[in-house]
Amino acid sequence: MDTVISILRVIHVITAVLMAWPFYALVAVNQRMRLGPPLGDRVDTFLENTIKNRVLPCYIFQATALVTGLALILLRGMGLVSLVTIPVLGLKFLLLLVIAGLLSVVTFNLQPRIDALFTKRDAGGKILEDDAAQIRTLRGRRKQLSSLCMFCVLTSAMLGVQAWVAFPLWLTVVLIAAIAVFTWRAYTSVTPWGWA
Ligand code: HEM
Predict the structure, then answer these.
(1) Cβ(100) to ligand 1 under 6 A?
(2) Looking at the predicted structure, is the pLDDT value of residue 1 above 90?
(3) What is the mean pLDDT of the chain?
(4) Taking residues 125-134, what's their average pLDDT?
(5) 69 alpha carbon to ligand 1 midpoint, in Å?
(6) Could you say which DSSP state residue 120 is in?
(7) What is the Cα–Cα distance from 181 to 196, expressed in whole angstroms?
(8) Which of 40, 92, 114, 183 could pair covalently with 127 via S-S, beta carbons 3.0-4.6 A apart?
(9) What is the pLDDT of residues 21-45, one digit of tens each?
(10) Which atom of ligand 1 is nearest to the CA of 76?
(11) How far apart are CA 153 and CA 110, in angstroms?
């Protein structure tokens, strides 16, 4: 049983590493913003295709984190009731539901609207200014949700470290604040120095 738990822990942590995509997606979209016009050229096709093709892997990694996380609880002989009795685990569970929701909003609401706007062109093959403005607004909203997703993933990793032995509350609050600052940097810059 110890071997199974060890393997599951490794899979769980590697899954967490692979869930860093929102951070790198923010790097990519912030680089795209730096590039400036024109809107709708091959750079945008590349960016949109890359983002769209990460949807299925993201759902798979989320499912893997959920299944391995729950399995680790059960295999340690603790019932699902520990999602209530150990607040850190309950919070991790809720955060996973939140990121699944965020991904679904992007996939089923924002992305189809962005795609539809990119297909509309005038006679010269250019995107109308009105449509370009809508694309910018929708992309902005997608970027906000991506940042929120990144914040949730990093918070979930931080909570994972204290799954069985809780940190003092003040330390958890300080770490959440640090994660929020880092997420803000990723939202507003290309983080040229890694952490800043
Ligand atoms: C965004 C999704 C998640 C991420 C990024 C994440 C990340 C992590 C990380 C980094 C650890 C630390 C491992 C260690 O120190 O050994 C951990 C531990 C843990 N996580 Fe998650 N986790 C996620 C979702 C979940 C979910 C949904 C559950 C189930 C409710 C869960 C349950 C656990 C448990 C039980 C541990 C302790 C593992 C052990 O040592 O037995 N995690 N998690």
Answers:
(1) no
(2) no
(3) 97
(4) 94
(5) 5
(6) -
(7) 9
(8) 40
(9) 999 999 999 999 999 999 999 999 9
(10) 41
(11) 21
Nearest residue by C-alpha to atom 32 in ligand 1:
69
Residue 78 Cα distances to 83, 156, 185, angstroms: 10, 20, 38
Give backbone dihedrals phi and psi of 105, rounded to 5 degrees, phi first: -60, -45
**Ligand 1 atom index nearest CA of 83:** 30
Residue 29: CB within 6 Å of ligand 1? no
Q: CA-CA distance, 60 to 80, in Å (whole number)? A: 22
- Give the pTM: 0.95
> Which parts of the chain fold into alpha helices (H)?
2-18, 21-35, 42-53, 55-75, 82-85, 87-105, 111-119, 129-161, 169-188
Judge if the beta carbon of residue 19 lies within 6 A of ligand 1.
Answer: yes
Q: Is 179 left (phi over 0), alpha (psi -120 to 50) or beta?
A: alpha
Could you tell me how far CA 94 lies from the centroid of its own chain? 14
